Amino acid sequence: MAAHGEIEVIETSRLGDRGYLATDGEAALVVDPQRDIDRIIAMAGRLGSRITHVVETHMHNDYVSGGLELSRLTGAVYGVPAADKAPFDHLPLADGDVLEIGPARSLRVVATPGHTFHHLSYVLERGGGVEGVFTGGSLLFGTTGRTDLLGEQHARDLARMQYASVRKLVDALPGGTRVWPTHGFGSFCAASPTSGGDESTLARERLINPVLRLAAEEFVDVVLAGLDAYPAYYARLGAINLAGPEPLDLHLADPADPEEVRRRLASGEWVVDLRDRRAYADSHLAGTISLGLDGPMATWLGWLMEWGAPLTLIGEQPGQIAEARRELARIGVDRIAAFATGLAGDAALPVATFADLAAPPATLPHPEVVLDVRLRNEWKTSHIAGAVHIPLPELPHRLADVPPGVVWTHCGSGYRAAAAASLLTRAGRTAVLIDDIFDAAAPAGVPLA
Question: For a Cys-Cys bond, which of 8, 219, 287, 361 suits 214, CB 3.0-4.6 Å?
Answer without folding.
Answer: 219
